[in-house]
Amino acid sequence: MAVDEALLLSHTPSAPPTVRFYDWQPSCLSLGRFQRLNETIHSALRTPHSALDIVRRPTGGRAVLHQYEVTYSVVIHKEQLPPESRSVLGSYRWLSNGWVEGLQQLTVQAELSKANVGLHSGTANCFSSTAQCDFLVAGKKLIGAAQCRQRGAILQHGSLLVDLDRALWESLVGGSMHDTVTLKSLGIAATREDIIRALCAGLERTAQMQLERGEMTADESTVAHRLHSDKYTQSSWTEHGDKHQN
Length: 246
Hints:
Layout: H1 2-10, E1 18-22, E2 27-31, H2 39-46, E3 52-56, E4 64-66, E5 69-77, H3 88-105, E6 111-112, E7 135-137, E8 140-150, E9 153-161, H4 166-173, H5 192-207, H6 218-232, H7 235-240
Parallel strand pairs: 2-3
Antiparallel strand pairs: 1-5, 2-4, 5-9, 6-7, 7-8, 8-9
Helix pairs in contact: 1-6, 3-5
């Protein structure tokens, strides 16, 4: 999370967009930036669990259990988007069209949700409800996404479920996972590398860009290390988020 925020804070209109894929070792429960914690999550925060980390994201939304999935982040400046795609909803759709195209290469016919449907008030679970620009397959959620912005730069996070431990999700976060689908449940046996390759190809095609492998700059690395020590490893941020930020 410190790396993603460092990429966001360091991004300028003249810098190329950054697309990042990663997974989590050990498994991790991530909380949305402004999310209030329910008693279940409070208990998880205070109970040592060698197989599970907890972190608060810089992006919004609700809790996600990162376990069997492909996580992505995209950092792009709004000036690099078409004028009609610079709003929050417009940028979600512009970025997400590439993933829909990429999923088609895996024979997955996904679509973006057009409205808030199945919203369960009070639940802390990102995948127990569907919001605009979540990814649906036959009406069930496959990818959840969230954004934040700083000085015109946009960071979008997304979580693509490859498999799912429904009992662990529901016990940690609450809510029902009944309306969730995974690549495994769809019969997709692609490797992680194949999934990332397909997503990249879809984004390149729809955004008309060419992705190249790269490394963080020295300045980005410095910012990431500072954020890691001063923010993301601090219990005040994990438990309370922006309430404890100056």
